[in-house]
């Protein structure tokens, strides 16, 4: 039987959004199909899992990372572990730095041999390869701000490019870490006020900040669970800056007001910068339902000082991803979670061909619901889409979850493999494939 859906409770506390409380280690996992033998590493995914069973908003639960290790065609283990930050009961310490008070619930990445659980207001938390919490990761004490949950790893240089935003000045700070994980640059970026800046963009030569009109407003917390609201006055801008530059180098471009949690990717096309985004017409606007996220393309014409915007598709899609090897470089394909129910879980993975706007979908069977599709390349891949999409999918008939592995090239209706887990994995946020070190 599936988890009962209680319509009196907010969506994030019911059904398969509801938290799970047991930390599980399961080995010798049953598999339907064949795990591609070149998938050697761990699929990791973070999510909001309120330890108390209650939270004011989907974004405000304690971080719990779920992972599956794959090796030589086998599924070695499934594990889920809370990220043990001072926000988790029993882990608070007197005198702890405020930047350590993270929920660490939004994303999990691998960089410079470390696994980092990320949230957007605080320091990263380092995890061991078996998901035990090591502690806050401060770049040798050099990181003087929090860190976005959406840093970008440049596939060409290995650099980690990221930013932090604040409710108080400095509202925006840009950071760049080397391939070996050394923080080598931090720059305060001037913006008009305190907004929620969830993600940003990189290309081969630039970073592009999104300064969008969802502003901090403490009065609003009681109404929506978050101290944020849409502003009709703030305006909307994109800020283009050389990757090694500073505030004086930022060129700002006005765009039509909107909110974007997640870009798919950005790249340079001559003097133009192309950014594909899941764009919401409005977000957190008083008295209005949130507009659905839809795939749009912004093209920044640097020579003309303008931005053009086109809608790619009508469908409601989120959690967009390109292969890690295409981040900041020209992509042809994008992969998204297609939302059918209005709740942020995927009934299908939708693949867009950005040369035409056409798309194909892998529809999950049997009422299963998934999340963000993470692309992993096939062995010896030469084509951009030669690889696999990985996501946890919830099977309501069994009240358990699976790791589904889908052929990204064909988007075949039959998964390549399904790794059966003994428990359900609540719907969550973002994840990564962390390949074994060569
Ligand atoms: Fe996100």
Q: Could you characterize the architecture of this molecule?
A:
This protein has one helix at 221-224; strands spanning 25-27, 31-33, 41-48, 63-71, 74-82, 107-111, 114-118, 125-127, 133-136, 152-153, 160-165, 172-177, 183-188, 201-202, 206-211, 214-216, 228-230, 237-242, 251-254, 259-269, 272-280, 294-301, 306-311, 317-321, 333-339, 346-353, 358-363, 374-377, 387-395, 400-407, 417-420, 431-435. The protein is an all-beta fold and 438 residues long. The termini are far apart. The model has no long low-confidence stretch (mean pLDDT 96). Strands 1-5-4-3-32 form a five-stranded antiparallel sheet, with no helix packed on it. A five-stranded antiparallel sheet has the order 2-31-30-29-28, with no helix packed on it. It has a four-stranded antiparallel sheet with strand order 6-7-8-9, with no helix packed on it. It contains one helix and 32 strands. Helix content is 1%, strand content 42%. Bound molecules: fe (ii) ion (FE2). Fe (ii) ion binds at residues 106, 149-150, 198, 261-262, 429-430.
Query: Number of helix segments?
Result: 1
Contiguous low-pLDDT stretches (5 residues minimum) are: none
Adjacency order of strands in the biggest sheet: 1-5-4-3-32
Radius of gyration: 20 Å
Please tally the β strands and state the result. Answer: 32
């Amino acid at each position: 039987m599936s988890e009962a859906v209680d319509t009196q409770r907010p969506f994030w506390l019911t059904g398969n959004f509801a938290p799970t409380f047991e930390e599980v280690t399961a080995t010798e996992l049953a598999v339907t199909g064949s795990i591609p033998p070149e998938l050697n590493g761990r699929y990791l995914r973070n999510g909001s899992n309120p330890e108390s069973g209650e939270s004011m908003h989907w974004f405000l639960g304690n971080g719990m990372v779920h992972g599956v290790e794959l090796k030589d065609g086998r599924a070695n283990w499934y594990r889920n572990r809370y990220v043990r930050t001072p926000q988790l009961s029993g882990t608070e310490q007197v005198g702890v730095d405020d930047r350590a008070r993270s929920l660490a619930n939004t994303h999990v990445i691998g960089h410079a041999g470390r696994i980092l659980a990320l949230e957007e207001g605080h320091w990263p938390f380092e995890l061991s390869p078996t998901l035990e919490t090591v502690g806050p990761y401060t770049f040798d004490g050099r990181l003087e701000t929090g860190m976005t949950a959406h840093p970008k790893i440049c596939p060409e240089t290995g650099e980690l490019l990221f930013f932090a935003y604040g409710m108080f000045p400095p509202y925006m700070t840009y950071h760049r870490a080397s391939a070996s994980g050394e923080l080598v640059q931090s720059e305060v970026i001037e913006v008009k006020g305190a907004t929620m800046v969830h993600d940003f963009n990189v290309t081969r030569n630039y970073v592009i900040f999104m300064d969008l009109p969802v502003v901090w407003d403490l009065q609003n917390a009681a109404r929506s669970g978050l101290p944020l609201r849409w502003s009709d006055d703030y305006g909307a801008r994109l800020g283009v800056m050389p990757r090694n530059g500073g505030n004086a180098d930022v060129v700002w471009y006005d765009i039509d007001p909107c909110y974007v949690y997640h870009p798919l990717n950005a790249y340079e096309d001559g003097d133009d910068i192309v950014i594909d985004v899941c764009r919401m017409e409005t977000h957190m606007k008083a008295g209005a339902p949130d507009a659905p996220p839809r795939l749009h393309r912004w093209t920044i014409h640097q020579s003309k000082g303008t931005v053009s915007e086109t809608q790619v598709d009508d469908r409601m899609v989120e959690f967009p991803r390109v292969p890690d090897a295409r981040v900041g470089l020209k992509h042809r394909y994008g992969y998204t979670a297609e939302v059918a129910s209005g709740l942020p879980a995927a009934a299908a993975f939708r693949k867009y061909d950005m040369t035409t706007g056409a798309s194909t979908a892998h529809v999950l069977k049997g009422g299963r619901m998934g999340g963000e599709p993470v692309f992993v390349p096939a062995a010896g891949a030469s084509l951009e889409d030669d690889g696999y999409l990985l996501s946890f999918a919830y099977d309501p008939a069994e009240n358990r979850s699976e790791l589904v592995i889908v052929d990204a090239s064909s988007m075949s209706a039959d998964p390549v493999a399904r790794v059966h887990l003994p428990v359900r994995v609540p719907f969550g946020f973002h994840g990564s494939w962390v390949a074994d070190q060569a």
